[in-house]
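User: I'm new to structure prediction. If I give you an amino acid sequence, what do you actually give back? Let's try with this one:
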Amino acid sequence: MSQRSKVVVFGGVATIDDFRRLALGLDGAEESSHMGSPDFRVGGRIFATLAHQAQGYGNLMLTPEVQGLFVGEAPETFVPVAGGWGRMGATHIRLATADEETLAGALRTAWKLRVEKNAQAGRRRRRPGK
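Assistant: Good question. You get back a string of structure tokens that encode the predicted 3D arrangement of the chain. For your 130 residues, that looks like this:
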């Protein structure tokens, strides 16, 4: 996501079912579980969770920079997760204020960041000449 990208929130209510459907609609996405909560992975790595669904949130694994853009543009919808996870970019999306388009875009962003990070990790593990 470029620094010029805008987060657009049109209003509406996204649901847990919307979150799950949209996350699983992304290429290679699979549902799993982490510490008893549903999570969504690509390449075996988490890009989103429903760890705070009882509080009305989905969680997105963003970078701190992307988190700052999202929170800056739509603070009523995007909130950093408390503590160290939030400082690393983990971000709540408040489903009551997110419409489906906003949710889909946010999930797609988290998915894309994870795919890119997975590719970078794969390149670092390869040794020259192998």
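You can read the tokens as a compact description of the fold. Here is one thing that stands out. The CA atoms of residues 50 and 58 lie 5 Å apart.
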